[in-house]
Design goal:
With 283 residues, this protein is mainly α. It folds into 2 domains: 155 residues, UbiA prenyltransferase (Tetracycline Repressor, domain 2), CATH 1.10.357.140; 126 residues, Up-down Bundle (Four Helix Bundle (Hemerythrin (Met), subunit A)). Helix content is 78%, strand content 0%. Helix 5 runs antiparallel to helix 6 and helix 10 packs antiparallel against helix 11. The chain is flat, with a radius of gyration of 19 Å.
């Protein structure tokens, strides 16, 4: 049961969230980093992210049963019952928000609460109603990076908005590539994802290409905002053009192979970009 509960939190997604929060905290810190404060931020964020992911699976258990990719998850497979799963999920999510409020501050806790509520009660139900849910879902997906910055700097500021924009735009080609690969699963589940009603894939990958084009400008903004230096600027340009090339290639000739290449490029893109940004941080 412990293993099933751990799986319910989607630990790989939680790990990615923590990478973005940790990077934002380092970028927002002036002088020496407060490792104790960073530890509080990461622990509280992990609890909220894990609780959010678990609640998503609680509310989408019936949908997960209809998808080959997800039918082995703890709830649809019967390894967990809905009641204990929901209690566990709410305990993590609410506990994480309270922990952040007590150890980091109410602003960071508010951002975490907004992330949980918007993901579970706005994005999750919208997936069954409109293809615009992809854009809506990118908002809670990008909010945690604001929390990392605010924890270090004490306020949001234009630099944090720049980081939010990068994460928001990155999610679009990342998710759209995945949506194309598993389009039959999404169709079987009755979800309103653009790839479901896009037989040749051109609409899906055109959207991915436009998002990746916008990401080129967003990725260069940290240098203009005084967060990172010139080395980062050129590295970000190269990485963003690489991601855009993968998206444009998929838009020109859609295929599962090119979708997987785009997805792989998006997986590598974000940690590389953030690592270079932290290494070339303007102090």
């Amino acid at each position: 049961m412990i293993r099933a509960l751990f799986e319910l939190t989607k630990p790989r997604i939680v790990a990615l969230v923590l990478v973005t929060v940790g990077a934002a905290f380092q970028l927002g810190s002036t002088g020496n980093i407060s490792w104790l404060l960073l530890g509080h931020v990461l622990l509280g964020t992990a609890l909220v992210a894990g609780g959010t992911n678990a609640l998503n699976q609680v509310f989408e258990a019936d949908i997960d049963r209809r998808m080959q990719r997800t039918k082995g998850r703890p709830l649809p497979s019967g390894r967990l019952l809905p009641g204990p799963a929901a209690a566990f999920a709410w305990s993590l999510g609410v506990g994480g928000v309270v922990y952040l409020a007590l150890t980091v501050g109410w602003t960071v806790a508010g951002i975490a609460a907004l992330t949980l509520l918007s993901y579970v009660f706005v994005y999750t139900p919208l997936k069954q109603r409109t293809t615009l849910s992809t854009l809506v879902g990118a908002v809670p997906g990008a909010l945690p990076i604001l929390g990392g910055w605010v924890a270090a700097r004490g306020r949001v500021g234009p630099e944090a908005v720049v980081l939010f924009g990068i994460l928001f735009l990155w999610q679009l080609p990342h998710f759209l590539a995945l949506a194309w690969i598993y389009r039959e699963d999404y169709r079987a589940a009755g979800l309103r994802i653009v790839s479901v009603d896009d037989p040749d894939g051109r609409q899906t990958f055109r959207q991915a290409a436009w998002a990746s084009l916008a990401l080129v400008s967003a990725a260069l903004a940290p240098t203009l905002a005084g967060v990172a230096g010139v080395v980062y600027f050129w590295a970000a340009l190269a990485l963003s053009l690489w991601l855009m090339w993968a998206a444009v290639a998929a838009a020109i000739q859609p295929s599962t192979r090119r979708a997987r290449r785009l997805f792989g490029a998006s997986v590598a893109y974000l940690p590389l970009l953030l690592t270079i940004m932290m290494l070339d941080k303007v102090r």
